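Morning F.,

Quick status update on the modeling queue. The single chain you submitted on Monday has been processed. Sequence for confirmation:
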Amino acid sequence: MPRSVNSVASRRRRKKILKAAKGYFGRRKNVYTVAKNAVEKAMSYAYRDRKNNKRNFRSLWVMRINAGARLHGMSYSQFMGKIKANNIDLNRKVLADLAMNNPEAFKAIVEKVK
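Structure tokens below.
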């Protein structure tokens, strides 16, 4: 019996990789073996950096809250400690947005926790 090869599935699999490599430089975009390595590496970076992105945003929020709190004579850690003690359930994202775009509201929160 002749050997049967599922070329339809193979072609589809290769096309999927080459489509993901669209826009890459040189052979990375059109040579399957090179593209496969490039796409695999890119996917691992994407996975890693989805986690790092969350980290980066949290540190940005902390910096903004710290800057806002220091304008009113408090450090970040003191401010967050008093926020928790007064049972104010605002997360860092919201607090950072208030500190940045709505200083009056942020000042009201600071006055409440002092």
